[in-house]
């Protein structure tokens, strides 16, 4: 069992919680690799996918994870629900809750929306990304990918690079990595840096070139062009010159160092196309881990413990 009822953020998770999620996800590898990709672990449980902001990876991997665990699920979007008629979030949640559902998965533009849902239902809530706040299920798939590559997380040196201030991915990944004993360095232009100089004990620098040779993982963040709110941003070309991951920078990385990116990518801005597709890139491994870790999170939060594969 996890120590939390809901998965809203990563800083509430203990190392034991994270290890349980990663180990359970690993146990689901065999399910995902067989011809019949289904176990009855969540048979009879009802899960609502409430995606109020666009998503490709998170939404599709939750939906696949639900099918692979035999849960009953329904997917709602902002534009296809009575939200467009002005129904409040609280009324929407209470309405769906009255149908006796077990879990809400929520993606929202407004930070705090998943927390607000917990106040209007007894069902379990998973945050699938809320504004600039948190994206905890992204962090779990990132940790899974990194742990699978190196066999461990403790002691690894990870640079999270780019648009730190607007990134819910950074806000989730950095504390989760720290909890698991990794060293995290934040790299970004001064206007994209986080305000707190001791944010989760992560040093910050404006120079990727000064740190890249020491890193085991170079995690490139998407520039959140939709969340700038008037912040000064360099041109695409200037950003790419100073902070973009190109083959020249990749050639200075340690021999076994890897590259991650949460997607969707701005190819040619934070990451060059040949880098995204190179042998060090783990970007599609991250996508694959998204199904496994989301299966694990839903399974553990709905009361599963061991024997998930044969349940
Ligand atoms: N990484 C991520 O959350 O991607 P989507 O917005 O496509 O879900």
What's the short story on this structure?
Helix content is 35%, strand content 14%.
Describe the structure.
With 311 residues, the chain is α/β, with parallel strands linked by helices. The chain is 35% helix and 14% strand. The chain contains twelve helices and nine strands. The strands form two sheets. Strands 7-6-5-8-9 form a five-stranded parallel β-sheet, with helices on one face. It has a four-stranded parallel β-sheet with strand order 2-1-3-4. The longest helix is centred in the C-terminal third of the chain and has 19 residues, at 283-301. Phosphoric acid mono(formamide)ester (CP) binds next to α3.
Major sheet description? 5 strands, parallel
Mean pLDDT over the residues = 94
What is the distance, rounded to the nearest whole angstrom, between the alpha carbons of the first and last residues?
16 Å
Q: Identify the strand order in the major beta sheet.
A: 7-6-5-8-9
Q: Let me know the number of strands.
A: 9
Radius of gyration in whole Å, from Cα? Answer: 19 Å
- Oligomer type: single chain
Order of helices and strands: HHEHEHEHEHEHEEHEHHEHH
Tell me which ligands are bound: phosphoric acid mono(formamide)ester
Structural class given helices, strands, pairing? alpha/beta
Please report which band the strand proportion falls in: under 5%, 5-15%, 15-25%, 25-35%, 35-45% or over 45%: 5-15%
Give the topology.
Layout: H1 15-27, H2 29-32, E1 46-51, H3 57-68, E2 72-77, H4 89-97, E3 103-108, H5 113-118, E4 124-130, H6 136-150, E5 157-161, H7 168-179, E6 183-187, E7 204-205, H8 208-211, E8 217-220, H9 236-243, H10 247-250, E9 258-260, H11 273-276, H12 283-301
Parallel strand pairs: 1-2, 1-3, 3-4, 5-6, 5-8, 6-7, 8-9
Helix pairs in contact: 1-6, 1-12, 3-12, 6-7, 6-12
Residues 55-58, 129, 138, 262-264 line the site of phosphoric acid mono(formamide)ester.
